[in-house]
Design a protein that fits this description.
The protein has helices at residues 2-9, 24-30, 71-85, 104-110, 152-167, 182-189, 202-214, 228-232, 250-259, 281-290, and strands at 12-19, 39-43, 46-48, 60-67, 95-99, 115-117, 121-125, 136-140, 172-176, 194-199, 221-225, 241-247, 265-277, 293-301, 304-311. The protein has 314 residues and is α/β, with parallel strands linked by helices. It folds into 2 domains: 2-110, 2-Layer Sandwich (Alpha-Beta Plaits); 115-311, Rossmann fold. The longest helix is centred in the middle third of the chain and has 16 residues, at 152-167.
C-alpha cells in the first residue's frame, strides 16, 4: 500500500512518437524493454493497445511513461534507439512531456488478460496465473514492445511455429530478431531442445534472458547479440538449424536475405517469416524462390501475413 502511495506522489514523464502503421513494429522493437511500464499504441483520439491494432488504420502514436527523476537516463536510451533507426528510415522526432501523478503501472496491468494462441499455447501476462491448464503458458510482460503475443505478427508467428512443430519434430531452432524471446520460449515449451536467439539490440538480449528464466527454459535457449552475418561466420555454436523464424518487418527481412538468411536454414528445413504486409508479400516470395525455398502455407490476420517455406535446395 505504501509503495502504491509513493508511486502516486512521484512525477512522471510521457514519451511519445507518431509513425505510420507499417513502421510501428520497427519502432516498437527498437524501444523494447527500455521503459519500465512498457509501451502503448494509439491512433488519434482513441487508445489502441497492441491486441487491437487490427482495427486501426492510419498513423500510430507509440508512447510510454517513466519517473521524472530518471528522465536523463531514459531519454538518452530512447534517443539512442531512435537515432540508430534513423540511419535506415525516416522518423519524426519524439516528444517528452510531464504528466500529473498517477499509478501508471496498475493502470497498465488492468488492461491485459491472457491470450490463447493456436490450439495449444496461451500468452500470460507475467503477473497473472495461467487460467487454462490445458494450454501451454508463455509468461511475458506485455510492456515489452510488440514481442508480447498481443500484436498480430507475433500471434501469427506463434501459430505457425506451433503448426510446424506439431507436424515435424525439430531439435534445433534459430530465432532471428528474438526481441522479447517469446518465439524461442514457445519453441522450447513445444519440445525444441536447442535454441539460438539473436538480436542486434543488447537490451533485447537482456530481456530474452530474463524471460527465459521466468519460463524455466534457460537450458534450451541461448540469446546473443548479433544477426545473420554473425551466425554465418560460425561465431555461435549453431550455424544453421532445421527451423528458423524471423518476425521482423518486410524491409528488414529483405536485408536479411541479402545477408544470407536462407543459408542458415538446413536442407529440407523450414523458414517461418512474419511481419509482412499484404502489399509486401510478393517481394518476400521472390526472395524465397531465389534462395531455393518452396512455400508450404500462409496465415493471415488483418493486413498481416506469415509464411512458412521449406528449403528444397542443399
Amino acid at each position: 500500500m505504501n509503495e502504491i502511495k509513493q508511486e502516486q506522489e512521484q512525477q512522471w514523464i510521457e514519451f511519445s512518437i507518431e509513425v505510420d502503421q507499417d513502421m510501428a513494429d520497427l519502432v516498437g522493437n527498437a524501444l523494447i524493454g527500455i521503459l519500465p511500464a512498457g509501451l502503448v499504441s494509439e491512433r488519434v483520439f482513441e487508445e489502441v493497445f497492441p491486441h487491437e491494432l487490427d482495427q486501426v488504420s492510419g498513423p500510430i502514436r507509440i508512447f510510454g511513461f517513466y519517473l521524472e527523476e530518471e528522465d536523463p537516463v531514459y531519454r538518452d536510451r530512447i534517443l539512442q534507439a531512435l537515432n540508430s533507426l534513423k540511419l535506415k528510415v525516416d522518423l519524426p522526432d519524439p516528444s517528452f512531456s510531464s504528466l500529473e501523478n498517477k499509478n501508471w503501472t496498475a493502470a497498465w496491468q488492468e488492461r491485459y488478460q491472457p491470450i490463447p494462441v493456436g490450439d495449444r499455447l496461451i500468452v500470460v501476462p507475467s503477473w497473472l496465473e495461467n487460467p487454462d491448464p490445458e494450454r501451454i503458458p508463455i509468461y511475458i510482460d506485455p510492456g515489452m514492445a510488440f514481442g508480447s503475443g498481443t500484436h498480430e505478427t507475433t500471434r501469427l508467428s506463434l501459430a505457425m511455429l506451433e503448426m510446424c512443430l506439431t507436424n515435424r519434430i525439430q531439435n534445433e531452432l534459430i530465432d532471428v530478431g528474438c526481441g522479447s524471446g517469446i518465439l524461442s520460449i514457445a519453441a522450447a515449451k513445444l519440445g525444441v531442445e536447442r535454441i539460438l536467439g539473436v538480436d542486434t539490440d543488447p537490451e533485447a538480449i537482456r530481456v530474452s534472458n530474463e524471460n527465459a528464466k521466468k519460463n524455466h527454459i534457460e537450458k534450451a535457449g541461448t540469446f546473443l547479440p548479433g544477426s545473420v552475418p554473425e551466425i554465418l561466420s560460425e561465431k555461435f555454436s549453431l550455424p544453421r538449424a532445421g527451423l528458423v523464424v524471423a518476425n521482423i518487418i518486410a524491409p528488414i527481412l529483405e536485408e536479411l536475405f541479402n545477408e544470407g538468411l536462407g543459408e542458415i536454414v538446413a536442407s529440407k528445413g523450414q523458414l517461418i517469416l512474419s511481419g509482412i504486409l499484404e502489399n509486401q508479400l510478393s517481394a518476400i516470395l521472390d526472395h524465397l524462390k531465389r534462395n531455393g525455398f518452396e512455400v508450404e502455407k500462409f496465415l493471415r490476420q488483418g493486413e498481416w501475413v506469415a509464411v512458412v517455406a521449406e528449403k528444397i535446395t542443399a
